[in-house]
Amino acid sequence: MVVALTRTMWVDVRNNEGGEVAVERDSRGDGGGGAGEYAAEDKGDRSVGTLELFFDLVFVYAMSRVTSLMLADISWAGFGRGLLALAAVWWAWVCYAWLTNTSDLAGPVHRLLIFLAMAAMLVAAVALPQAFGGRALVFGLAFLTVRLIHVALLALDVRGEADVGAPALRLVPSLLGGPALLVAAAFVDTPGRELLWIAAAVIGFSGPVVIGTAGWGVAPHYFVERHGQIIIIALGEAIVGVGAGAEDSLGRLSVVSAVLFAVLIAAGLWWSYFGYLRGGAERRLRGTRNGERARLARDSYSYLHLPLVAGVVFFALGVHEAVAGADEPLPLLPAVALAGGVALFFGGDVAYRWRDHHQLAVDRLLAALGAAAVIPVAGVVPALAALAGLTLICLLQTSWELWRHPVIGPV
To answer: What DSSP string describes 202-222?
Structure first.
């Protein structure tokens, strides 16, 4: 069911993206010879293929298991462990996204390695809810295997390319150092285990900043499309969480209403990312050259898309609890997850577009503040009312955008 839902949603996104690309080409005059300025640099640009979609499903499943980890321990410590687990899974996906953005993985050896990485990631995902407990070693070894396969694919991809191979090899210590610490963490008790996870995250995320992005290529259309893909599949998993929260009490009108509000909130998040402001992202990447393009892609996508995904993961946790107990106020932490997840998504969207275009999306900033203001309210009113308030915020933001048609990015 999840795969069927994801495939349907992804077809819609691909069609939507294709329309934006067509508009973009018209605005740049590609049909009349205006694309010559960047044609040589972007000739290897392509669309995301079915192999990448197949691959991403395993990673999004792993992200959904982060929700399971936090549901098993709804506490501040549980939230912290969830963030550490999400950061690890996200950075592993980011590394593969950078690899495949300039490699078509057409050879049988490449594809076999991708399938092996999927198998290892699936093992890690199954173990993830107990990655800080009884299955810590299983998770650590599976995750290290995912990264070792990535390094092998990287070595295959840069053979004979001195300008790319040297920078790639300099990243290997940061690629393997973090997962190695996760294996070591399995032999350490709390809080040492969590400290090693923090160190692993710091090593991984700091690698591209300390070592730099010199020599790395970015295919604009592919990069934008691939990150849109991960957002839409994550939203699809949040919808699955709505259904899971409702299945035991769907006969009540309040629960049916909660499901409606939850879907409308998810639709509001979808609009925030894929609405009118989406078309400028690819043009922005195409308008930069050499190292600046790689730095922009690193900051806007590898780093600033993590708050977007984290917002969806937290929303999925909160909405599961809100739908299941629609008639009762939410405890503090589920309220933080529900409204805070929505606020984090809108805030992440503001940060992403500021780095991408140096323009402030005021409507999304106000939506983030409004969603954050729902957190204390959700603790004293029924969860259904909190969902209604978040729905109203999303509807106001979307309506304003439909009315004003704001432009963010190059025109």
So the answer is: HHHHHHHHHT--TT----HHH
Half-sphere exposure of 183 (CA within 13 A, CB side): 12
**If we measure between CA atoms, which residue out of 373, 315, 250, 385 comes closest to residue 70?**
315
- Helix residue spans in 158-191 (DSSP H): 162-185
Six token digits for residue 124: 């890690």
Q: What is the largest CA-CA distance in the chain?
A: 64
Q: Are 62 and 87 in contact (CB under 8 A)?
A: no
Average pLDDT along the chain, 411 residues, taken 10 residues at a time: 40 39 35 36 63 87 90 90 95 90 77 93 95 94 95 77 62 90 94 95 91 78 89 89 80 89 94 76 82 88 94 93 91 94 96 88 94 95 96 95 75 48
Radius of gyration of the chain (CA): 21
Q: Give the Cα separation of 93 and 157 in Å (integer).
A: 17
Write phi, then psi, for 217 (nearest 5 degrees): -95, 155
